[in-house]
Amino acid sequence: MESIETQRLLSKKLTRRGDRDTAYQQTRDVEGGSGSPVKFQQVYPLRIVLKKGFVRLVLAAGTLWMLLVMVVLLFHVWSCQSSLAFFSAICNRDGRVFIILDTMGFVPKPAHRCSIPLANDVAKVAIPRERTPDVILENLSYFEEDDDLKNGTESTTPLFGGHQSWAQRDQSFKLSKTMKVHCGFIRGGGAEMSPKDIDYVKKCKFVVASGIFDGYDVPHQPTNISERSRELFCFLMVVDEVSLEFIKSNVTVKKDSEGGQWVGIWRLIALKNPPYDEPRRNGKVPKILTHRLFPQAQYSIWIDGKMELITDPLLMLERYLWRGKHTFAIAQHKHHHSIYEEADAIKRRKRYARPLIDLHMKIYRYEGMQPWSVLKNTASGKKNVTNPTSLLCCSILILTE
């Protein structure tokens, strides 16, 4: 009897404990404990609402953007046909409103495409046997030492362009049979070549030149170069010491038996002691004064370092120089047609100090430089090295220093 009573009491205690556990669990579920069905049922609809709201927001923003584009296009079409002078002036490229918007950078620029009708066969290109005669300017020489330093009137270090006086500058623009002008490379002014490079370039009659400064890139190998041009041309890549180290650390540089350094077809020409503090100005030295770096060259082609030559250089000379009997050809910029447009673009990009650029343009206007017009035709980027073309490049250096 006692055992039966004991079992009955034990079963009642277990039943009461189970009831308490069940009630406690239900209480947790009602309060929203972790993993509770009640909380899951509350959170799940909220997530659905957020997802639907985000999708609707994206669709609404895309619709508004398309409507805005359509309104702008319709306004542009209407303004070009409007009788109101202000709106119709927006589409007039010669109008003042269009010029102002273009100066501010609001006018989109079309993609640049330049078709080059070249000859078909490099082997049939006839190279002129005689050079262009120097009739107007027979003898051209350059100052190689700074007169002020030589006379002891200046205590500063030599400048790359020399301490040129205003009288000498004015005289350099007056043509005569014999002239002596400042054209950079003053002794001690910087931009010196090594003796091995000087000996190499003495053999170059046809030159394709390029340049990399401040270590921003590596040489791009030309394509579509014929065997005739490979034997005829010297491909010279002018670099500063920073760029030379950058190139050595990124591509393979080979040395020949004479110590020359090569990257593919390009012979690296290192300039020591940069004449200017800014890499952009140092890059202008080989670009403008190719005839001074490579004085034995009869023909030279300049290619910017960021570009790749994809046309045979002999075909370029035939097309732009020999076919029309020209001595100088320079490329038209794909966006800017005059030095004044270039100055505005430089100021927008903040490449140089704006007051200095304004002063530079003021000097150009004072000396009578006219803006570009459609009557001024331009061609491509090559030259037959004669005394007049050399003087022109020296004059460009004088203007930019």
From TrEMBL:
<dbReference type="InterPro" id="IPR006852">
    <property type="entry name" value="TOD1_MUCI70"/>
</dbReference>
<keyword id="KW-1133">Transmembrane helix</keyword>
<protein>
    <recommendedName>
        <fullName>TOD1/MUCI70 glycosyltransferase-like domain-containing protein</fullName>
    </recommendedName>
</protein>
<feature type="transmembrane region" description="Helical">
    <location>
        <begin position="57"/>
        <end position="78"/>
    </location>
</feature>
<dbReference type="Pfam" id="PF04765">
    <property type="entry name" value="TOD1_MUCI70"/>
</dbReference>
<dbReference type="InterPro" id="IPR048354">
    <property type="entry name" value="TOD1_MUCI70_glycTrfase_dom"/>
</dbReference>
<keyword id="KW-0812">Transmembrane</keyword>
<keyword id="KW-0472">Membrane</keyword>
<feature type="domain" description="TOD1/MUCI70 glycosyltransferase-like">
    <location>
        <begin position="140"/>
        <end position="376"/>
    </location>
</feature>
<feature type="region of interest" description="Disordered">
    <location>
        <begin position="15"/>
        <end position="36"/>
    </location>
</feature>
